[in-house]
């Protein structure tokens, strides 16, 4: 003690030895409190876990019940469509919004969207195709990219520029990194039905490269080659590469497979490209060819265009031609033509 002052630990030891009963009692109380707190915490956690499991069980039950009701609605809508009761079927499925349910009834939503389009009900058609597009992540690449075209043309026909811009962004995001030439080709076409800014064109460049590299050679009789060539032609036109657009359009025209809707599209691209190259006579000639083909198809309205005609073009392929025809007329003839004039 004389060598150094007593430490705090030394003093504590002495105090404990002098008050053993007090400290033992305090320790016992502390252990009891800790055990009680631990037990109550464990019981609380178990009770909360049980409550959450019960809530999940109720939520799953509700979800299963809703899915059963949705499937019943889709079945009823299918029966109504078979009886040409499209309005009643559309009303029945109008409240369905989740992607899983839409996917289950994809054929129903596709038919209802197409029926609305043939009647010029663009808002209803856009709603149905938008739902279908969101659900198509589980679909085959062919159906998904065709639904993409359906949605793109009705948004433009509706005059929803903002909706089309967002849709264009979604297309690029969904197919980004795809190695598939079919998806790449349709992504380019559907994103460039209207002029695009430099950033969008840059993001579409890899898609166009995939489409171009997939073309087997010249001459070709493959339908896929001619469609992919036309997608390269349209991106070259949007880039302002007029001569390249003409070259790709002519190359696609030379392919053995013939498709009147694709040829009409190429006539429109050629017309605008020739105009920018200072060849007004050639531009007018190509525009006249496009206008004749489109006019013949739309003389009875969209309802006169057969559904599912993959050889000469689906109705939405001809809608693409009508959109490009309007742009070509405004450029070459200065006509501010309205889509209404084609109905």
Short summary:
By secondary structure, the protein is mainly α. 76% of the residues lie in helices and 0% in strands.
Would you kindly provide a written description of the structure presented here, covering whatever features stand out?
It contains 15 helices and no strands. It is mostly helical. Helix 2 runs antiparallel to helix 3, helix 7 runs antiparallel to helix 8 and helix 9 (181-191) packs antiparallel against helix 10. The N and C termini lie far apart (111 Å). Mean pLDDT is 82; it is low at 337-343.
Q: Tell me the helix content.
A: over 70%
Shape by Cα distribution:
elongated
Q: What are the secondary-structure elements, in order, as H or E? A: HHHHHHHHHHHHHHH
Largest sheet: none
Secondary structural class: mainly alpha
DSSP summary, beta strand count: 0
Low-confidence stretches: 337-343
* Average pLDDT, all residues: 82
- The number of helices is 15
Which descriptors apply to this entry?
single chain, mainly alpha, elongated
SSE diagram, text form:
Layout: H1 8-18, H2 20-82, H3 86-93, H4 99-104, H5 106-118, H6 122-135, H7 141-158, H8 161-175, H9 181-191, H10 198-214, H11 223-239, H12 242-254, H13 260-276, H14 280-298, H15 315-332
Helix pairs in contact: 2-3, 5-6, 6-7, 7-8, 7-9, 7-15, 8-9, 9-10, 9-11, 10-11, 11-12, 11-13, 12-13, 13-14, 13-15, 14-15
